[in-house]
Amino acid sequence: MHSSFSEPNSPLKEVLLGEKWQTASCSDIGADYVKPGPLAKAKFTALRNKREAIDRFLKKHRNDDLGLYIEELRDFAISPGGLVDDEFRAIIWPVLSANLVINDDLDDVSSSYDSDFESAQSDFEDSPPYEEIGELTLEDLKGHKEWNQVELDVHRTLSRFPPNISDTHRDILQTDLIPLIVRVLCINPRFNYYQGFHDICLTVLLVCGQQDALSVCSNLAKNGAFNNYLLKTLEKSVVRELDLLYVILSRVEPSLERVMRSVELGTMFALSWPLTWLSHSVKQYQQIVRFFDVFLASSPLLPIYVASAVVVYRRPSILACEREMPFLHRLLTEMPHELPIDAIIKDAVYLSRLMPPCLLKTKYMNEYRKIVAKPPRAAVKTIPRYALQFMFVAGTVGAAASFFFFKQIHPM
Amino acid sequence: VIIVGNAAVGKTCLSFRFCCGRFPEHTEATIGVDFRERSCAIENELLRVQLWDTAGQERYRQSIVAHYYRNVNAVVFVYDVTCRDSFNDLSLWIKECEKHGLVSDGEVPRILIGNKCDVECANKVSTDEAQMFADRNNMALFETSAKSASEADHVESIFLTLLHKLQQSKPMHVQSQGERQQKEQERLILKANEAANLEEQGFCC
């Protein structure tokens, strides 16, 4: 119940219902929705204040090009609570996606520490003029080589829809989703669909509606993290990114990293996290869109930092788990229902500042390789664990405080 | 045990049916590899069955799923009887397995399951055809459905057959993990009664 501060602001509101889709924004939530206790109350108030601040901001700049205020929008998206309401997301996501943060080191993860220059070479070829995507007919789309696979996957997305969506509505959304995905794939003939990309497009469709979803998804496919996943083999893109998870862990939680390495856990437990921006494993709609807020406003590698923060958060269960690969794999694949999302995001952002992608992929990666090469004790300076745990405490308890602070910056 | 086959043939449903005793309500496309487990008592020996449920899409086939072929004791190939492509692609899956040392005359048992036999379809893969294919590749063929309740026992017996085979060949006791697993077994036998009760009801622990 705590989870429904807002419900998807769906494109169908004009088409089917003829009236505004019911958005249960936080201001509509009565006191009974809030768990008792001062912390929950503070959180609730903080969210409401943030909601008002975003509302004010959007009203003030109603006639401006929102792209000019991209920094403000990113702040809204990253700070606790995210964009709060799907009504705002529908407006802000297109702006964020048109101004994605590009990797700070020009190069992507695969070619930066990749000695065979095959993939580096392919980067140069990767810029054919993108095709105009609006003109393709449904028949054209059905002829696309991936149509069938997309159809199979989309038909299996029932559990991804929030409960307040009716069956008819869901059917229509599913029918819209297939051509939407294939249209995005048509942008570049070298795009290869992967299972999981449909989760991304579905989330965007639920929030933005069909028209905007196409441009948001296209931007993500062209300029975002998914560009690599769609163009290269998964081994050369996402798997390499996930290797960085161990590099991060070795510096934050060396003991945890050792456990995971000793059972040869690998990174497959987290495979779907960057591929779907966690929408595959996180079950609550509100948590999914909250993660999307942040990822749309941050470096394409942030999902890896979030993955690290999630693993660190699950430290106690990992250490308590049987030391065998299958059990650890299962433990980590299943995302706990109650995730302290704001704390995890805060930690992830903190980690990404502490170990920026450019250092992570070069210096730290090399240092990590040395650790792995000589199993005995390694002499890498680690971040005191307390620093991070403090962030968690600050995250949960102090979430509210930061909101109050926020409120002071933007007075009513 | 690793379960492989084309996308949307029902690998997840089959493994779910076996491990949890029911047909899952909504399944999604598997991304990467999922792990399920169930304990079975066979001839007074408790076997801990670990199923790796893999992604069907070709993009996941290579090194991602490949990682899990290591230490595999049995392979289950799945196709959809209403989908000819999924049957035709079986030879690719077999090749893929053989690349990882899981060959037909090896110690690793392999079985073939034709899923969704409850679905009426004009273009079904015929049993004869599938049987011929299975014979050629030295596998046992089963046609079943993870969905229909009447076939539930069948799914169960298919996997139990596989376990019997496994137990006879016992490759897992001689492999590197053997010792550890035996210890595990001793520990688990203590729980055997408890687990056996659960099995009667058709649920996993």
Automatic annotation (TrEMBL), chain A:
Keywords: GTPase activation, Membrane, Transmembrane, Transmembrane helix. One of its GO terms (molecular function) is GTPase activator activity. SMART domains: TBC. GO terms for biological process: endoplasmic reticulum to Golgi vesicle-mediated transport. GO terms for cellular component: endoplasmic reticulum membrane. Residues 83-299 form the Rab-GAP TBC domain. Pfam families: RabGAP-TBC. The chain crosses the membrane at residues 386-406. This is Rab-GAP TBC domain-containing protein.
Automatic annotation (TrEMBL), chain B:
Its main location: membrane. The keyword Lipoprotein applies. PANTHER family: PTHR47978. One of its GO terms (biological process) is Rab protein signal transduction. It holds the Pfam family Ras. This is Rab-33. GO terms for cellular component: endomembrane system. The lineage of its organism: Eukaryota, Metazoa, Ecdysozoa, Nematoda, Chromadorea. It is found in: Endomembrane system.
